[in-house]
Amino acid sequence: MLSPFDSLPFTIYSWLMFGEAAIAIFLSFYSLFQRNSHVGYWYSWLCLGEGIYTAGYGMELACHSVEQTHYWLTVEMLGGAYLPAFIILMAYTYRYHIKAPHWLTTTLLTISSATLIIQFGNDSHGLIFKSVELTQHDGMSVSLLGFGPWFYAHMVYVNVAMVVSTGLFYQCWQQAPQNQKYQVLLILLGSLPPWIFYLIYLLDWAPYGLDLSAFGFLIAGPLYGYSLFRYRFADLLPIARAQIFDNIDEGIMVVDTQWRVLDCNNQVLQFFAMAPIDNIQICPPQLKKIAQQNITANESDRQQMHLNQYTFDIQCHPLRDNASLLGYVLMIRDITEREQQLSLLQNHAQIDDLTGILNRRMILQELELIAQQQWNASSQTYFSVILFDIDRFKQINDRQGHPIGDLLLKQLASLLQQQLQAHEIFGRYGGDEFLILSSGVTPTELEARAEQLRLLAHGQLGITLSMGVTHYQQYDTPRLMLQRADYALYQAKAAGRDCVLTMQEQPDEQLPAIGLR
Questions:
Q1: 61 touches 75 (CB < 8 A)
Q2: Beta-strand relationship, 383-390 and 433-439
Q3: What pLDDT score does 65 carry?
Q4: Is pLDDT above 50 for 235?
Q5: What is the per-residue pLDDT across 100-116, written as a single tens digit (0 to 9) for each?
Q6: Contact at 8 Å (CB) between 160 and 190?
Q7: Could you tell me the residue ranges of all domains in the chain?
Q8: Can you point out the beta strands (E) in 309-362?
Q9: Mean pLDDT in the chain?
Q10: Which CATH number describes the domain made up of 351-502?
């Protein structure tokens, strides 16, 4: 009895199979040790399965006896039984960028293992091959196989696996950005030849009855190898793109020198309501303008863009190949919420919580700024201060309660804010005291304006106001103006309240003051 290795005359066809097996096994171990993804894991097993299958078929083509053929058919099944499972799992992880579900992996590997176990006992039951005969053609030993019921079940399994995996790869190709379509196309094309040749074999169109699916791996292997080495699909793309590029909060857009969009992540599509970029599109004009400003200013600076009630930070980085400019990478960050928070904090820092007008710090800052402008101006213009408060406000608080007093302050602030003119700045000085800064109005006009506001408060809210007025004098300071306005307010109180008094002479420092206590 011949052993499986006795007197095997290897023809060119066997050597082709051995060469393909060597390539497939090399790719298997290379991708296994280089991989950083689930795609690389299943790709390495797929290559190993192809290598075992093609090596076994190369030996089958040189067999001298049916016993040898039975042996190498079993060796082929060690790899071939699992190829449908490996191709589906590879396509799934490539398409969805996640580890395949445990139930799917277990189901597929269980079906493949069942096929292998049945093959080991085929001599006793014939569920896969009912009969095996040999014929010689051009020095080759071609097996003529009679198929059993499990062969047909496995045939359905193989074809379903190829339909599913091809569909998944096709979806990847459709959705891939322009610069990755070639990579996906190579993987898609690499999976088709073994399947097509297998169908030719099943239809009995193959010359001499050869199993052409093994020869299909001669095409698939180089395509997979080129894709692996040229694009590193098994350990880098599109996994990195999907898990990092598409999932980061910042939008990323790649454009060429003509500002045509070459690629972008999901955030950009959400930001600008753009359709998926299957064809080249032009960068939105507003974004292009902001990005060009960023390039002109400083590459490390960010520019802001407002669009549809959203605010974006834009940063533009040139893409260069040595000295050649290839395009730009735009980094786009949605800072709407941050800007809202900053605005809220700014309001808290500048606006009085109770009345909604400028607080003491801001109204005094405005007074200091205008006074400084008056000092620096070549010719003096009119500038005045009105300081006023509510008469007998303490009694209102004591008799009606602080909530009523607070409500009155809010109503007064709202009423005067509505009447505010363009040249006036209004703020709360403290307690029930308020300041109005007025520019470009003559003293006579200002005193009439103060009287108008006093009457308005009395008519609308039923309260009286005492008001102190002063006007800017050469080399005045904010402190001096406040002293005079405060003393004018004190004099209005002393005169019986509910009136407007103007003070231009600097008061004695020993005189009582209301506002500066």
A1: no
A2: antiparallel
A3: 86
A4: no
A5: 889 999 999 999 999 99
A6: no
A7: 12-241, 249-336, 351-502
A8: 310-321, 324-334
A9: 84
A10: 3.30.70.270
Superfamily of domain 249-336: PAS domain (3.30.450.20)
Distance CA 480, CA 507 (A): 9
Write the CATH number of the domain with boundaries 12-241: 1.20.1070.10
pLDDT of residue 275: 46
Residues 249-258 have a mean pLDDT of: 84
**At 136, which helix (H) or strand (E)?**
strand 129-137
| Amino acid in the structure at residue 182 | Y
Do the beta carbons of residue 117 and residue 73 sit within 8 Å? no
Is there a contact between 98 and 89 (Cβ–Cβ < 8 Å)? no
Taking only the tens place, the pLDDT of each residue in 13-71 is: 888 889 889 988 888 888 777 555 567 788 889 889 999 999 999 998 888 888 888 89
Nearest-angstrom CA–CA distance, 491 and 430: 19
Cα 341 to Cα 335, 336, 345, 483: the distances in Å are 10, 9, 6, 37
Find out whether 112 and 81 touch, Cβ atoms under 8 Å: yes
The DSSP string of 59-125 is HHTT--SHHHHHHHHHHHHHHHTTHHHHHHHHHHHHHHSSPPPHHHHHHHHHHHHHHHHHHHTHHHH
Beta-carbon contacts of residue 129 (< 8 Å; ≥ 6 apart): 73, 122, 145, 146, 147, 148, 151
Token output for 433 = 């005291």
Residue 232 pLDDT exceeds 70: no
For the chain, what percent of residues have pLDDT higher than 70? 87
**pLDDT tens track for 313-360:** 888 888 886 777 878 888 888 888 787 788 777 777 889 989 999 999
How would you classify residue 204: left for phi > 0, otherwise alpha for psi between -120 and 50, otherwise beta? Answer: left
Taken in order 282, 285, 287, 288, the sign of the CA dihedral is positive
337 is written with which tokens? 């919420």
| Residues 214/16, Cβ–Cβ less than 8 Å | no
The SS3 call for residue 307 is strand
* Beta carbons of 113 and 81 less than 8 angstroms apart: yes
In whole angstroms, give the CA distance from residue 22 to residue 118. 27
What is the Cα–Cα distance from 415 to 365, expressed in whole angstroms?
A: 23
Residue 135, beta-bridge partner list: 142
